């Protein structure tokens, strides 16, 4: 498998604490990673540990520290995980009210292969705005790991802690690399 650069966007839900699993899976396959966090997710993750692993600052605001790149790095794939009810609805509507949402809006617009892994309970997932958001993002080309074909379903309200343990980090990474490989092949005319 060819390596590449994976842009990870983390939202404010329990599995954010385990994003190191995704970073490790990517690194095993020679991918570089960087994490962008929604402002609400900062309290869910261990930013210094992530920075140590990735070698890149965790970005959550437009402010940059000396030495940080101001522009977005070229990404071979974008993986939004865990993706909250709130952020999925915002992404579908095109809202860009924080640095993470602005990055996502631009990367999707640039047609960067995008995988979204929702972590939502069944009550939220049943809401009409959420169902429309998922359909609209799929129509736009994003790959959303949700539903029986993806073996990843919304969990009953109150069971998030248990479900967090089975968050599909490996499947998410494999899906992102598959989409990135397909995009590379299409660009080089071998698709
Ligand atoms: C402890 C805790 C756990 C939460 N778990 C979830 C969750 O699993 N899924 C979800 O969609 N929202 C969850 N939320 C609510 C989101 O954090 C909230 O909607 C927030 O505004 C999302 O911000 P973001 O989408 O900008 O990251 C949780 C909130 C708290 C305080």
From TrEMBL:
Highest taxon listed in the record's lineage: Bacteria
Gene3D superfamilies: Flavin prenyltransferase-like
Organism: Micromonospora qiuiae
Flavoprotein domain sequence ranges: 5-126
Matching InterPro entries: Flavin_trans-like (IPR036551), Flavoprotein (IPR003382)
Name of the molecule in the record: Flavoprotein
